[in-house]
Task: structure prediction
Amino acid sequence: MRAVVWTKYGSPDGLEFRDIPKPMPKDNEVLIKVHAATVTAGDSEMRGLRFPLWLAIPIRLYMGLTKPRDIVLGQEMAGEVEAVGKDVTRFKPGDQVFGTTGMRLGGHADYIRLPEKTPDSVLATKPSNMSYAEAATVPTGGLEALHYLRKADIKPGEKVLIIGGGGSIGTFAIQLAKYYGAEVTAIDSTAKLDMMRSIGADHVIDYTREDFTQNGQTYDVIFDVMGKGSYSGSLKALNPNGRLAYGNPKFSYMIRQLFDSGGDGKRVIIGTPSQRDEGLLYLKQLIEDGKLKTVIDRRFPLEQAADAHRFVDSGQKQGHVVITVVPED
Result:
């Protein structure tokens, strides 16, 4: 089968398009014919090992000390179940599914095998009103946004700020916050402002021209998707009893959270997002009810996965970048 194999840490030049053996499902696994996958910022960070030292070391130990062990990247995908192991009860051949792969990765290939149930990956039948390409964009970003906004416990009428609203997680966070009844302000670069308005943001801020910590506005919830905003500035921009959630916090923020919550009942939310079947089914229902949609910036065929990584590395993507494994009609 065709696959894009990760052969070295660093630039997309280490991604090689190859033929590798087709996997066979074990008793508790499903074999999925992948139709579409994505390249996320997380895939880019993993490929380049762009993590703080405390995280990079265990990843090297797991993936390969000097180079990755010929791993196929891809954290989310959508496709059709081709075969199931004898112990599988939830899926059958022909089912159209979408989900996350967990630390197994593997979405950038013709086929992937996944356990029916596992702590770090989720799988469900895909939304009936989405194509495979659209469905492939939902699991990672949608589940991360859902996790942190649930932790923030948004109430109708509250003011919510999404820092990094134009990416994979942020586009879902904007829509989920609106669904919960919030007044949403989204921050990102100039090119992404119109897109964020189109998916429901009430207000937008161009971070290249305005510092939200200096404009006098305050919020009930701030969700910093990539953890790049000022910790102290964000706390000051919170109303009393406000919640500050970090999707990808710096290590220093994790330490500060232990000692500094800003007072006035403010709360800092940091932690690994949970991925559960329940969450993916919840997102599926919102999609089928017309409450949630995806934003696809560009699509690349499987053999051009390295180019997709280069585009993600540029920081220009709006929403999602899709890898098309099986061309859609």
